[in-house]
Amino acid sequence: MFEVNATVQLIEGLHARPAARFVRLAGTFKSVLTVSYGERRADARSLLEVLALGAPQGAGLTLRAEGEDAEAALLALQNFFEAEGGA
Questions:
Q1: Burial of 62 by CB count in 10 Å (0-12 exposed, 13-18 middle, 19+ buried)?
Q2: Which DSSP string corresponds to 27-83?
Q3: Are 64 and 33 in contact (CB under 8 A)?
Q4: Distance between alpha carbon 83 and the CA centroid of its chain, in Å?
Q5: What is the C-alpha to C-alpha distance for residues 76 and 87, in angstroms, rounded to an integer?
Q6: For residue 87, which of 9, 11, 40, 57 sits 20 to 30 Å off, Cα-Cα?
Q7: Measured in Å, how far apart are the chain's first and last C-alpha atoms?
Q8: What backbone phi and psi angles, to 5 degrees, belong to 21?
Q9: DSSP β-ladder status, 40-43 and 2-7
Q10: Does the structure show a pLDDT above 90 at 30?
């Protein structure tokens, strides 16, 4: 299992549109992907679960992946937050 950290930079937090883009991106990988904020954990392919995290601006997320493309998946998901700021 691989793990990286990312920070939500959007003023509105991880709201519907960026969450939907995040979930679509996660869906392009074969690995099992999870995202955690505090004690909450979500399947990175589930929009409702990702939204239920309630991650505000500045939230530190933990991204985890397990599977054949885990490293590539985490790099792409981490870049999502760094390049787009989750926007």
A1: middle
A2: TT-SSEEEEEETTEEEETT-HHHHHHT---TT-EEEEEEESTTHHHHHHHHHHHHHH
A3: yes
A4: 13
A5: 15
A6: 40
A7: 27
A8: -65, -40
A9: unpaired
A10: yes
